[in-house]
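Quick start: what a row looks like.
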Amino acid sequence: MIDYIRSRKGEFLVPLIMFGYATYYYLEVRALPGARTNLLLIGPVYWIMVLALVGFFISSYIKHVRIRQFKKTSSSELKVSDKKVTGAFLGLTCAYVFSIEWLGFVFVSWLYMLLLLIVFSVRKKSILFFLPLSVALFIYLTFDVWLGITLPKGLFL
């Protein structure tokens, strides 16, 4: 298992960075006065993220074991990422983070998801149209309308 993790460091980098940031945020919120009230939203989300990360590691390992068992392949066929796709992902993520305030959270989130699906070679038009739209709409309705948490408006909604 340890050898597997060492050989797949790149695949675990983004989830571990996200988990590290979430842990830092969780600990900062716990240190605030009235931590019980402040943790009402971040607490359950954080623990779901912990379970998701553990599930990601376990499912990744199981997938690796199954591939090794059922298919004798070379390491070049098991290559998961492409440098162009990785670069596009990093570039789109940076553009997303820096344009949220300027263009608005909902619009930029929709555009980010759409472009990521295109970069990851999703060609089915129904998925390209409905998935980003439904996720952006869900985020808007959940946070802005239902919870009353104002999202950055920017030039677009």
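That is the whole record. Residues 73-80 have pLDDT under 50 and may be disordered. The chain has two domains: 1-79, 81-157.
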